[in-house]
Amino acid sequence: MGEIVGTAHRILWNELPEQVRAEIEYRLGARVRSAASQTGGFSHGMAARLLLDDGRRAFAKAINGDDDLSGMYRTEARSAARLPRTVPTPSVQFTVDIAGWFIVVFDDVDGRHPRLDRPTELGAVLAAVERLATALTPSPLPDVPTIADDYGPRLNCWRRFAGHGPPSDLDSWTLSNLDRLAELESTWSEPAAGDTLLNTDLRPDNMLLRADGAVAVIDWAWPCRGAAWIDLVSLAPSIAASGVDPDPILAAHPSTGDADPAAIDAFICALVGYWENNSRLPAPPRSPKLRRYQAHSAQVSLAWLKRRLVWP
Length: 312
Description:
Elements lengths: L17 H11 L3 E6 L8 E7 L4 E8 L5 H12 L10 E7 L2 E7 L3 E2 L6 H17 L11 H5 L5 H8 L7 H5 L1 H8 L10 E3 L8 E4 L4 E3 L6 E3 L3 H12 L4 H7 L8 H18 L11 H20 L3
Antiparallel strand pairs: 1-2, 2-3, 3-5, 4-5, 6-8, 7-10, 8-9
Helix pairs in contact: 5-7, 8-11, 10-11
């Protein structure tokens, strides 16, 4: 997990139609001198830091309107544009539809992905998570789905394995505890309910550590409403993958300190089942490393879950 590099075959700036590039430059009020494609993440649309002729910078994303992922890009732009200014995230400068393409341009953030194995950087990440929970409770976007509605159809894989047969290559502990995992997974949605706006996709490659030491969150493609503790628990597998034990962090952090440990177990369990299932699916042609990432996420998170559950 950690920093995720080169995961998708992204569209490059110079591969956009000339009319699309000209419209972006017109709205920015300057020509693009250079465009640095961003290699993290799993979507294949264009994502580039633009350096303009007048020295200004901007961050642009673009995708063909017929692409299956275009709805995700629109959700990201619509959500980010309505966030309170207290949220540590770059502002949307403009969106535009032109020549069959959807474009969103953000303020550029000069920074790099944080390293969770470095205490100071991890501390900055945890401070950003706390700021999100404070600024986004109650949710400023009441029209986004609840986490149960959005993720319920996906976070049910242990139950499907138990009902229809598990993959043959599951480890012996998982196979012997399959029914218990399915039962635990079935309990995640009720305690996950709440009125905090959640990012639900916090990973190091969706954050930028700025020169002033603060962390910005840069992707809002999967917003939903739920309990404030969900976002930090979703980030915890990345913390574990960096070699840091997430449990003391969850116990001490304001957003998770009062959360029911059984509820956290259930949500981790549901995430592991999702990753175990999806890591075995065919790789998307333009995101060839996605399944490897999901397999690694499943491995790290399952080891963490085993430590928490202490099942034989």
